[in-house]
Amino acid sequence: MSVNKEQERSGNLFQKNFKRKIIEDESYLKSVVYYIHANPLHHKLRNDFENYPYSSYQIILSNKPTRLKRQDVIEWFGSREQFVEFHRDLKSYLFDESYAIEK
Prior knowledge:
By secondary structure, the chain is mainly alpha-helical. It has a domain at 25-95. The chain has helices spanning 2-6, 26-42, 57-61, 70-77, 80-94. Helix 4 packs across helix 5. It is elongated and about 55 Å long. The N and C termini lie far apart (42 Å).
C-alpha cells in the first residue's frame, strides 16, 4: 500500500507480469503440463525434474492421496507409461547434455 501511495498507483504490485493463455486443444495442454514440470531444468535449478521435490510430476505418478486430478492428467497422455515417455522424449529433445548444470 505504501508503494502504491508513493507512486500514485493502485492494484497489486505483481499483477503486471501475470499472463493467461487459453488452452484450446489437447496437444497444447500436454505441452503446458510438460512446461510446468520442466521449469527446474529451464531455470537450471536441477538436471532432472523427475525428482524435484516441489513438482507435481512425482505426485501424478504416485498412488498417494492428492487433490490433483491425477487420473485426468494421465488420461490426457493416454496412460501412465505414455505420460512418462512424453516427458522423457521432450526432455531429451529440448535439453541435451550441454544444458546440464555445472557442478
